[in-house]
Every structure is written in structure tokens, then in C-alpha cells.
Amino acid sequence: MMKEIYLAAGCFWGTQAYFKKIEGVIKTTVGYANGLTEHTDYEHIFETDHAETLKIIYDESKISLKKLLLYYFRVIDPTSINKQGNDEGRQYRTGIYYVDKEDLALINEVINEMKQKYGLIAVEVKELKNFIKAEEYHQDYLDKHPSAYCHIDLNLANLDDLSYRVMKENYTEFPNSSELNTEFRKGIYVDKLTKVPLFSSSEKFDAGCGWPSFRKPIVTDAVEYLKDNSYGMDRIEVRSSSGNNHLGHVFDESQGLRYCINGASLEFIPYEEMEKRGYKEYMKFV
């Protein structure tokens, strides 16, 4: 069943490019929503109080409204008032605008979850009114101008739920749940989001702990370290330098260092694929 929802998330160029990547999204259109008038354009939305908004047609059999909204909250600052990224003004406010009143209960459920996480949030929830399709040059703008400004990390659309929780919310996957724990072919392990190399198979070993383990990163500055005293423990967190993504922890043991890394934060590149995928310079580390 095809359904629609309208989401305001700051500049609609990046919002459209991001949601187009998500499976189950069938069609997207950028426009202006919930202003005071039935007519406006890009030059006058600050006068008519419209928000830059993305119309999303999605297949409910492939993606739920809740999952779409969770993808939405990945890329906005829900506490920011009239500002996302470098853009400021009422036209850049965040909002969820619905056309089906039956969606409101689910929307409010997600909003309440986000309030528990962030406290007060600035995302307005209203029935859609006065939606005007934006000028043609705004449609699919980043497809036409790939180097144009975008306040959204488009790669976040490619992360599964577990990887997002691990990399962006510091979650720890269950032990022995990642297939990379038992992966011992030659190759390298890269940040799943940024694709920057982190570890080599030559430094991987079976630590018996249930998580992929390494003696050291592939190059010294591939990772960064932070003190982690969560859960009453004294640990050193390991994050990727390229994307500031949570990877796991490092432990100083009698046999040496053990980098205990969540498989959900990694992508394995087999040795025989490294050159064609642009990692030739790292083959000497394998």
C-alpha cells in the first residue's frame, strides 16, 4: 500500500538525496509546507512562513512509517529551533506533517521516544496544509550538482539499525553475533560508514571473547581514544578518526593490546578485491 508523509528537516536538497537512498521510498518531491498562504516560491517562503519540506511516497509493505521517522531523526538536531546545519530561519524548522489522521498516534509515539532521549524537542507535528511543489531546479538538486552544499551525512541512509546503534549511539552488539568474529581471510576492515581502513587481517586474532579482535590499527591515526566510565567500568573507547564513529574498546592485557571491536561497525574487504576497490596502497599491510 502506498502512503505519504511530509518531513521538514532543514535544507530540502540533502533531505531528498538522503531519503531517496532508503529502500521502500518510492518517490520524493521537494516543496514548501505549512505556511500561511496557498501560493509561495523560494524567494518568498520566509514571508509566507512555509518550511522547506520533502514529500515522501513510500511502500508500507517495505518500510513502516515508524522506521521512516527513525531514519528522519538520524539526520536532524531535534532540539534546534529554526536551524539545521548552517541554515537558519523559520523555513528551515523541523516538522512532521501528516495527511492520514490515523498516523498521528504513531507519530506521537516516536516523538515521545525522542523526548525521553533528548528532553525538549523542537519538531512540530501538524496536519499538512498549503503544500506547494518547489521550482524544478530544486528537484533532485544533489543529483544534478553532486558537490553542492549538504548538511546531511547521506551515508547514514545505508546503515542498518544495529550498525547505527553501535556507531552513533555507542551500543555494544551481542557476543558471537557478528560473522566477522570468525572471518580470517586476508584483507582489511574499514569503517562501515566512511569506508576508511581501520584494521588488517594480519593483526586479527581469536581472543575467545565473542567480538572481532585486533592487536593494533592499520595505521596509528586511524582511530582515536576516549575514557569511558559508563556502567561503572574504567575502559578506553576506540572511535574511528575519519567519522568519529564508535568501534569498541581497547584492553591492555598480559599478551599485549586487544582491540575489541563491534563487527557491526566494520566492513571486510577481501585481499583480492582491495585494488579494484581503491585500497591498493593498503595491500602491503595485509
Describe the 3D structure.
Helices cover 19% and strands 30% of the residues. It has 7 helices and 17 strands. The strands form 4 sheets. Strands 7-6-1-3-2-8 form a 6-stranded mixed sheet, with helices on one face. A hairpin with a 5-residue loop joins strand 9 (187-191) and strand 10. It is elongated. The termini are far apart.
Major beta sheet, specifics? 6 strands, mixed
**Overall pLDDT metric:** 96
Q: Give the number of helices.
A: 7
How many DSSP-defined strands? 17
User: What is the share of helical residues?
Assistant: 10-25%
Shape: elongated
Look at the helices and sheets and give the structural class.
alpha+beta
Distance between the terminal alpha carbons, to the nearest Å? 49 Å
Rg result: 22 Å
Quaternary state of this entry equals single chain
Would you list the SSEs in sequence order as H and E?
A: EHEHEHEEEHEEHHEEEEEEEEEH
How much of the polypeptide forms β-strand, as a percent range?
25-35%
Strand order of the largest sheet: 7-6-1-3-2-8
> Low-confidence parts lasting 5 or more residues at pLDDT below 50?
none
